[in-house]
From TrEMBL:
The lineage of its organism: Eukaryota, Fungi, Dikarya, Ascomycota, Saccharomycotina. GO terms for molecular function: structural constituent of cell wall. This is Seripauperin. GO terms for biological process: fungal-type cell wall organization. PROSITE patterns: SRP1_TIP1 (PS00724). InterPro entries: SRP1_TIP1 (IPR000992), Yeast_SRP1/TIP1_CWP (IPR050788).
Length: 121
């Protein structure tokens, strides 16, 4: 399995579906960035969820695949954020077994940095 396919599988494993939103908050972006980073770092754990049937590609929230593909290709994906179903991303993130131990601290860290940057502008 090549890296791009593995990364997409990991991101898909980290998702559940819902309706897309058009209002994007700093916290929404922090959750998405944290899950993409975590999926890249802990790819095997996400793949185990897919292979065990706990999560599937069909659970991918709207817009996440497009963002993931641009992120993997080092493209700017900011214009795609309004197409992401952040309610679905939030549902997926909070349901993962490592949410409290790994994801929440990373989300809070990213969110704090984004808030500090927004305050400086």
């Amino acid at each position: 399995m090549n890296f791009k396919l593995s990364a997409l599988a990991a991101i898909a494993a980290a998702s559940v579906a819902s309706a897309a939103t058009t209002t994007v908050t700093a916290y929404d972006v922090a959750e998405l960035e944290a899950i993409m980073s975590d999926a890249k770092t802990h790819l095997f754990q996400y793949m185990l969820l897919v292979y065990s049937g706990s999560l599937s590609f069909s659970d991918l929230p709207a817009g996440v695949l497009d963002v993931a593909m641009d992120a993997i290709d080092n493209k700017d994906y900011s214009s795609l954020l309004t197409e992401v179903d952040f309610a679905g991303v939030n549902s997926m993130v909070t349901a993962l077994p490592w949410y409290s131990s790994r994801l929440l601290p990373e989300i809070n860290s990213i969110y704090s940095k984004e808030q500090a940057t927004a305050t400086l502008l």
